[in-house]
Automatic annotation (TrEMBL):
Sorted UniProt keywords: ATP-binding, Membrane, Nucleotide-binding, Transmembrane, Transmembrane helix, Transport
An annotated GO cellular component: membrane
Matches recorded under Pfam families: ABC2_membrane_7, ABC_tran
InterPro entries, per database record: AAA+_ATPase, ABC_transporter-like_ATP-bd, ABC_transporter-like_CS, ABCG_dom, ABCG_transporters, P-loop_NTPase
AAA+ ATPase domain boundaries: 72-266
Name of the protein in its database record: AAA+ ATPase domain-containing protein
Membrane topology: Multi-pass membrane protein
A GO MF term: ABC-type transporter activity
Subcellular location: Membrane
């Protein structure tokens, strides 16, 4: 998260409108490696009776003994068919599970400390865009930054970070365009641009850990590849990034540094994406990759065929046997791990930052301003305005 140690009265230095690699030269991202070890997740779900009414709650295990790592300077992909537990894994990594849900296992940082990573340094981009339709691209990113950055930061400093983020994600040309709605009720930017605005709204506070749920969903192949390419560059800056993705084209698949394959809540592969084919072809129930077949397409077909077997699925049990026999090393080399360990922040240091960056008064002021801009162009009665302000007040209090 950006810090403002400079005198707010000083004029901020102008940002050079240069290439992404140059913009990142002064970037400060606390390096965090998140390791999940033997994590099992069983959320509470509502049971439905035959008459359509609810009949109590039950636990449903959606993830079993998941072990994987999200590392700085690595772009990680989580792949698997629908219902394999990919989105649930995001909730666990971001500590967004609900009260009453069962989470077993360990969440450990690179230096061996067990504990939860502060939510302040975690950014999550969900599949459904959470953007304000009547705000411009720059306004959406600005309010996200202003609400999350320390109150000591001046508007000029926040605007400078917003500009830097828009440059990184190629949004400067549409900075004054209204975002609009996906269904076209309010005309705005394209689907690919909306995704980049969503990423920018989280990236603007420089999260150490960035998790994205199906960011390429609904995008054409070219736009999807451009977005993943941007995430690849961001991972090279030190962000730990994990992407939930269903069935990427080969050029996108080759951008990933680490791959976790899931099937019905269990791991079927965890490691270097370039080794996935060799490993799967070594399984007795899997044939060779057919000619002229995309690797990611073949992987998904293999997993789906295994799930449809009448007897128990074999891929998960084969992986469990494999890791018991083999010495599976971390994706980070020893030399890089030593470098990371020296530059890693401890959990104590990460938790030392105050929980709230802004006072209640400042939050209320920002939320009111944002709501008024969201409602511009619409006919509001005084009653509607008052109700909106009351809603903001009680939301901030509670």
């Amino acid at each position: 998260m950006p810090t403002c140690t400079e005198d707010p009265s000083k004029e901020p230095e102008p940002i050079k409108l240069s290439a992404l690699s140059n913009v990142s030269a002064g970037r400060q991202v606390p390096l965090v490696e998140l390791s999940l070890q033997n994590v099992t997740y069983a959320p509470l779900t509502t049971k439905a009776s035959s008459n359509g009414k609810t009949s109590g709650r039950k636990r449903t295990t959606v993830l079993q003994n998941i072990t994987t790592t999200i590392s700085p300077y690595k772009l990680t992909a989580w792949m698997g068919p629908s219902g394999s537990g990919k989105t649930s894994l995001i909730s666990i990594a971001a500590d967004l599970t609900k009260s009453g849900d069962l989470v077993e296992g360990s969440i450990i940082t690179v230096n061996g400390e067990e504990g939860k990573i502060p939510k302040r340094i975690v950014g999550v981009v969900w599949q459904d865009d959470l953007l304000l339709t009547n705000l411009t691209v720059e306004e959406n990113i600005y309010y996200s930054a202003r609400l999350k950055t320390p109150e000591s930061c001046s508007d000029e400093q926040v605007s400078a970070v917003v500009l830097e983020t828009m440059i990184e994600l190629g949004l400067t040309d549409i900075r004054n365009s209204v975002v609009g709605s996906p269904l076209g009720v309010v005309r705005g930017v394209s689907g690919g641009e909306r995704k980049r605005v969503s990423v920018a709204s989280e990236l603007v506070v420089r999260p150490s850990l960035l998790l994205l749920d199906e960011p390429t969903s609904g995008l054409d192949a070219t736009t999807a590849q451009a977005l993943i390419g941007t995430l690849k560059v961001l991972s090279n800056m030190g962000h730990s990034i994990a992407v939930v993705i269903h069935q990427p084209r080969t050029t996108i698949y080759n951008m990933f540094d680490h791959l976790l394959l899931l099937s019905q809540g269990s791991t079927v592969f965890n490691g270097n994406p370039s080794k996935a084919r060799e490993y799967l072809e070594s399984c007795p129930i899997v044939g060779e990759l057919p000619p002229e077949t995309g690797l990611a397409d073949w992987i998904m077909d293999v997993i789906k065929e295994d799930e449809q077997r009448r007897e128990a699925a074999m891929l998960a049990s084969h992986w469990a046997e494999y890791i018991n026999k083999e010495s599976v090393h971390s994706m980070i080399s020893d030399s890089l791990r030593k470098t990371l360990s020296r530059s890693m922040s401890s959990l104590h240091e990460l938790h030392a930052v105050p929980k709230f960056n802004n006072s209640f008064r400042t939050q209320l002021k920002l939320l009111t301003s944002r709501t008024m801009k969201q409602q511009r162009g619409e006919r509001l009665t005084m009653t509607a305005v008052i109700l909106q302000l009351l809603y903001l007040f009680f939301s901030a209090v509670l």
